Amino acid sequence: MNKITFEVSRLSAADVEAVQSLARTVWQATYPALIPQAQIDAMLAERYAAPGIQKQLESPRDAWWIARQDGSVAAFAHAQAAPPDCKLDKLYVDPARQRSGIGAALLLAVSAWAQTQQATRLWLQVNRGNARAIRAYEKYGFRIVEARVFDIGRGFVMDDYILEKAL
């Protein structure tokens, strides 16, 4: 059996374009069955705009990671600390590389960083229809604590579960 090798590191400004590209790939593979294409396009444009990511890279309360495999970005994560909580805001793995341990490695990096920020709880939002992601997070100790609908403007909503785990 071949062992999957990858490297997790902090995101640099030079990697932003690769993250944007991977985000498009993952979102197009995951969300068309869950939300309208117009919402996907709007959320990608808003959440992955280079100036916004650059601002987060400069913030001590934000952290980004990437996982590289075979020289390319295979996954990424972003977290925001607001002790005693830390929000796992993004964790996406290339669909062709899922279930290889990359997501687990990113979760470990996020959890370790959150603890350095004095966070005692890690939480996230996931679309209620994204059963695969929900199962994955539950496998890593998260539990559903709430279901909420968030109005994000322009006639769009996020119909999400809130999941959390103690650190």
What does this molecule look like?
With 167 residues, this protein is of the alpha+beta class. The chain has a single domain (7-123), classed as Aminopeptidase. Helix content is 35%, strand content 37%. The chain is built from 5 helices and 7 strands; from the N terminus they run βαααβββαβαββ. The protein has helices at residues 16-30, 37-47, 50-58, 102-116, 131-139; strands at residues 7-10, 62-69, 72-82, 85-93, 121-127, 143-153, 156-166. It has a 7-stranded mixed β-sheet, sandwiched between helices. It is globular, with a radius of gyration of 15 Å. The mean pLDDT is 95.
Keywords:
single chain, Aminopeptidase, seven-stranded mixed sheet, 37% strand
Helix fraction, binned, reads 25-40%
Span of the ends, CA to CA = 33 Å
Instruction: Work out the count of structural domains.
Output: 1
Strand content: 35-45%
What Rg do the Cα atoms give? 15 Å
Query: Which word captures the global form?
Result: globular
Placed side by side, the strands forming the largest sheet appear as 1-2-3-4-5-7-6
CATH structural fold name: Aminopeptidase
Mean pLDDT rating: 95
Number of strands: 7
Class based on secondary structure composition and strand pairing: alpha+beta
**Total number of helices:** 5
The CATH superfamily bears the name Gcn5-related N-acetyltransferase (GNAT)
Main beta sheet: 7 strands, mixed
